[in-house]
Design a protein that fits this description.
alpha+beta, four-stranded mixed beta sheet, 18 helices, globular, Cytochrome p450, 509 residues
Length: 509
C-alpha cells in the first residue's frame, strides 16, 4: 500500500508540474482565445455531434480564431474567411502538413496516401501524378464516355421503374441515395480499374469480388471518422474504443486482398499486351504501374480517390435534389434553362454544362449550404507561425470550419436561404467565402471531376423527370452523422418522365 501511495503522489506531482509549465509557457505567447478546459482531456467533453455546429457555437462565443486542447492535441479552429485566406496563401507551406491519424496509419498504408501524407517529396510526386495525369483536363476529357454512360444508366433505371407504374398518373416513388452511390462509385472505379463493381450490371465472374468490395467500402467509410485514440493515445494501450482499432485492422486486411487482386489483374493484362502497339494508359492503376509506384502506394491511392470522390458527389447531388424539391420555382427555372439550351430531343451532354449558368449557380449554392466537407481536411503547422494575429505553435492541428464561413451572416446575405441567384455577376470575389474543396496546395485535386459528375447528373435528373414531394411535408433537411455531412434520412421523391419527347429519348437508352 505504501508503494501505491508513492506512485499516486509521484504521478500527481508530475501532472501538476506539467500543467504548471504548460500554463507558464502559454502566458508568454499570444495564443487564440480558449474556453476553460479540464486536465488531460482538455476540451474533449465540449465536442458534440455535429462537430461543425459545435465549433461554430464556440467560435461565436470565443472568437473566429479559437484555440482548443483536444486531449494531447492543440487545435486552432478558423471560422473567418480572411483568416482562411491567410492560411492558404501566406502560411500555405507552413500549414501543408497533415496530422498523424490512426485511421490513415492502419487503413491507408501508414498514412502514405495523397490525402494523409505530410508535405514533402512523396506528396509532391503523388500530387503531380494525380493533377497532371490521372485528373488532368486531358484525362478527364478521355473519361467523358464513362461519365455519360453512368449518368444514362442512372436515368434509364429511374425511367424503367417510372414507366412500369400503372397508377398515380405515372408517378412512382423512388429512393435516390443508393442510385447516386452506384453512379459515383462506378465512375471512380471504372477510371481506376476499368470495371464496374456496383449495381446490377457487373462483369461476369466479378460478382463475388464486387459484393465483398461493397462491404469493405461501407465499413471503410464508417471507420474513417475521428477516433478517440487520436487525441488520447496513452489510452490506446489499455482501451480499444468500441473495438474500432480491431475493426480497422480487419477491414484493412480484407481491402488489401481485393485491391491487390485488381493490381495483379491489370499487371497481367499489361504483360500480355507487351510488344503490341499500345496507346496511353487507360486506367489510374495503369498510370501508376508505368510510373513504377509500389503496390502499397497504388492501393492507398485507390482508397484516397474513392474516399474523396464518391461519397462527396453522392451527398451533394442528394442535397441538391432535396433543395429543389423544397423550391419548385428553382426547379422550373432550371428546367426552362435546359429546354432553351439543350431542348427535349436529346439528353444533356457535358459540353452543355458551361452554357447553363443557372445550373452552376444551383450547384454553388448547394455546396455553400451543405458542403461535403463541413470541416476541411485537417492541416498541421510544420513550425511556429502567426495566424490571424495569434501565435500558432508547431504541431498544432488547424481546422477550417467551411460550414460556418459559408453561413456567416457578416459574409452572406440571408445565409440560411437557398438563393442560386446570389451568384449572378459575382465573378470570383467569393473565392475565400466558398471553400467546398479547400484552397491552396492541399486543396482537393478532384474538384474538376466532382463538378463534372455533379453538374451532369443533376442536369440529367432535372431535364428528364418531373419531381414532386412524397406528401405534403417538405423534405427534411436534417444532417446525419459522418464526415461528409449526409442527409439524416435518404431522399425519396415522386417522379415521372416530363413529356413524350423525353420519354422517347429515355426509351431508346
Amino acid at each position: 500500500m505504501e508503494y501505491a501511495w508513492v506512485y499516486i503522489l509521484s504521478a500527481s506531482s508530475f501532472l501538476f508540474l506539467l500543467c504548471f509549465f504548460k500554463l507558464q509557457r502559454s502566458r508568454k505567447r499570444n495564443l487564440p482565445p480558449s474556453p476553460p478546459s479540464l486536465p488531460i482531456i482538455g476540451h474533449l467533453l465540449l465536442i458534440k455531434e455535429p462537430v461543425h455546429r459545435t465549433l461554430q457555437s464556440l467560435s461565436d462565443r470565443y472568437g473566429l480564431v479559437l484555440s482548443l486542447s483536444l486531449g494531447s492535441r492543440p487545435v486552432v479552429v478558423i471560422s473567418s474567411p480572411s483568416v482562411a485566406e491567410e492560411c492558404f496563401t501566406r502560411n500555405d507551406i507552413v500549414l501543408a502538413n497533415r496530422p498523424r491519424m490512426l485511421f490513415a496509419q492502419i487503413m491507408l498504408y501508414g498514412g502514405t496516401a495523397i490525402g494523409s501524407v505530410s508535405y514533402g517529396p512523396h506528396w509532391r510526386h503523388l500530387r503531380r501524378l494525380t493533377v497532371l495525369e490521372i485528373l488532368s483536363p486531358h484525362r478527364l476529357a478521355n473519361s467523358l464516355t464513362i461519365r455519360l454512360e453512368e449518368v444514362r444508366l442512372l436515368v434509364k433505371s429511374i425511367y424503367e421503374v417510372a414507366a412500369a407504374a400503372a397508377g398515380l398518373d405515372g408517378f412512382i416513388r423512388v429512393e435516390m441515395r443508393s442510385r447516386l452511390q452506384e453512379l459515383s462509385f462506378n465512375i471512380i472505379m471504372r477510371m481506376v480499374s476499368g470495371k464496374r463493381y456496383f449495381g446490377a450490371i457487373v462483369d461476369a465472374g466479378d460478382e463475388d469480388v464486387a459484393r465483398r468490395f461493397r462491404e469493405v467500402i461501407t465499413e471503410f467509410f464508417e471507420l474513417s471518422g475521428t477516433n478517440p485514440g487520436d487525441f488520447l493515445p496513452v489510452l490506446r494501450k489499455v482501451v480499444d474504443f468500441k473495438g474500432r482499432e480491431r475493426r480497422m485492422v480487419d477491414v484493412a486486411k480484407r481491402s488489401d486482398v481485393i485491391l491487390q487482386g485488381m493490381i495483379d489483374e491489370l499487371r497481367s493484362r499489361r504483360k500480355r499486351s507487351e510488344g503490341s502497339r499500345e496507346v496511353e494508359s487507360r486506367t489510374m492503376i495503369d498510370s501508376m504501374l508505368s510510373e513504377g509506384y509500389s503496390d502499397d502506394i497504388i492501393k492507398g491511392h485507390i482508397l484516397s480517390i474513392l474516399a474523396a470522390g464518391t461519397d462527396t458527389s453522392t451527398v451533394t447531388i442528394e442535397w441538391a435534389m432535396s433543395l429543389l424539391l423544397n423550391h419548385p420555382d428553382v426547379m422550373k427555372k432550371a428546367q426552362a434553362e435546359l429546354d432553351n439550351i439543350v431542348g427535349r430531343n436529346r439528353l444533356v451532354d457535358e459540353a452543355d454544362i458551361h452554357k447553363l449558368p443557372y445550373l452552376q449557380n444551383i450547384v454553388n449554392e448547394v455546396l455553400r449550404l451543405f458542403p461535403p466537407a463541413p470541416l476541411l481536411v485537417p492541416h498541421e503547422s510544420a513550425k511556429d507561425c502567426i495566424v490571424g494575429g495569434f501565435d500558432v505553435p508547431r504541431g498544432t492541428m488547424i481546422l477550417v470550419n467551411a460550414w460556418a464561413i459559408q453561413r456567416d451572416p457578416k459574409v452572406w446575405d440571408h445565409p440560411t436561404s437557398f438563393k442560386p441567384e446570389r451568384y449572378e455577376g459575382l465573378e470570383g470575389d467569393h473565392a475565400y467565402r466558398l471553400l467546398p474543396f479547400g484552397m491552396g496546395r492541399r486543396s482537393c485535386p478532384g474538384a474538376g471531376l466532382a463538378n463534372r459528375v455533379v453538374s451532369l447528373a443533376l442536369a440529367a435528373l432535372i431535364q428528364c423527370f418531373k419531381w414532386e414531394l412524397v406528401g405534403e411535408e417538405l423534405v427534411d433537411l436534417s444532417e446525419g452523422m459522418g464526415i461528409t455531412m449526409p442527409k439524416r434520412e435518404p431522399l425519396e421523391a415522386m417522379c415521372k418522365a416530363r413529356d413524350c419527347k423525353i420519354a422517347n429519348v429515355l426509351a431508346q437508352l
